[in-house]
Amino acid sequence: MTEKRKYTQAFKDEAVRLVSEHNYSLKEASETVGVTTKNPF
Questions:
Q1: What tens digit of pLDDT does each residue of 1-41 get?
Q2: Following DSSP, what letter does each residue of 4-41 receive, concatenated?
Q3: Is residue 26 within 8 Å of residue 8, measured between CB atoms?
Q4: Is the dihedral of CA 14, 20, 22, 28 positive or negative?
Q5: Is 34 within 8 Å of 15 (Cβ atoms)?
Q6: What is the pTM of this model?
Q7: Residues with Cβ < 8 Å from 29, sequence gap 6 or more?
């Protein structure tokens, strides 16, 4: 089993900002910050 990644609050905030302020889809935001859409956070 793989270890669960821990993301900083700043990382999470940036991902949310991409969706809420820049109208990225969840898939686009996930790809931009380098996580999969299966478990983005």
A1: 567 778 899 998 998 999 999 999 988 988 898 887 775 55
A2: PP---HHHHHHHHHHHHTT---HHHHHHHHT--SSS--
A3: no
A4: positive
A5: no
A6: 0.66
A7: 15, 18, 19, 40
Residue at 8: amino acid letter:
T
Q: 24 with 14: CB under 8 angstroms?
A: no
User: At how many degrees (to 10) do helices 9-20 and 26-33 cross?
Assistant: 140
Q: How far is CA 33 from the centre of its chain?
A: 6
Q: Can you tell me the distance from the alpha carbon of 41 to that of 35, in angstroms, rounded to the nearest whole number?
A: 8
In this structure, are residues 26 and 33 in contact, taking their beta carbons and an 8 Å threshold? no
